[in-house]
Amino acid sequence: MRTPRRAARVAVVDSDGAVFLFRYDNEEVGVHWALPGGGLDPGETPREGALRELREETGWTDVRAGALLCVWEHDYTRSGVPVRQHEHVFLGRGGRREPAAGVAAAHTEDGILGWRWWSPGALAGTREALWPPRLAGLLADVARTGGCRGVDLGYVPNRT
């Protein structure tokens, strides 16, 4: 039985369409890349949680959580506890930069191994695991149409 967990993330995209991702290595799903974000605090809305997590993990306070990009559910093990996580992913716009000084402790605590800005081409061509897994296509749709549709990806099982 998995513990339900609510979470939210922000897809921070720069003016060239590159997106900021963190690299993780999880005991259950292995190495993968994910957007800044994490679990919601009690009473927190997904948008509030996404911005709090973005601030804690990057130090950035000038990115707003815009339109809903997608929602999805997935399983993983967090601190030894199997969870089924339901995530809201919001689109944010921001300039390309490094995380602020002083967030390294949060990265260590969250198991973040590194970070990178991914160009649309690199994102579309990667074989590395991405959370959410359809991120390249979702961001390509935004670039093509200029807006988000708030796609429900449903439950996505882990790759084996």
**How far apart are the termini?**
20 Å
Give, in spatial order, the strands making up the sheet with the most strands: 4-1-6-5-9
The parts where pLDDT drops under 50 for at least 5 residues are none
Helix/strand class:
alpha/beta
CATH topology: Nucleoside Triphosphate Pyrophosphohydrolase
Q: Name the average pLDDT.
A: 93
Protein name: NUDIX domain-containing protein
Organism: Streptomyces chumphonensis
Family: Belongs to the Nudix hydrolase family.
Keywords: Hydrolase, Magnesium
Task: Summarize, please.
With 160 residues, the chain is α/β, with parallel strands linked by helices. InterPro entries: Nudix_hydrolase (IPR020476), NUDIX_hydrolase-like_dom_sf (IPR015797), NUDIX_hydrolase_CS (IPR020084), NUDIX_hydrolase_dom (IPR000086).
Write a structural description.
This protein has 160 residues and is α/β, with parallel strands linked by helices. The protein has one domain (3-155): Nucleoside Triphosphate Pyrophosphohydrolase (Alpha-Beta Complex), CATH 3.90.79.10. Helix content is 23%, strand content 41%. It has helices at residues 46-58, 104-110, 120-125, 135-145; strands spanning 3-13, 19-26, 30-34, 37-39, 68-78, 81-93, 112-118, 130-131, 151-155. The protein has a 5-stranded mixed β-sheet with strand order 4-1-6-5-9, with helices on one face. A 4-stranded mixed β-sheet has the order 7-2-3-8. The radius of gyration is 15 Å and the shape is globular. It starts with a strand and ends in a 5-residue tail after the last strand.
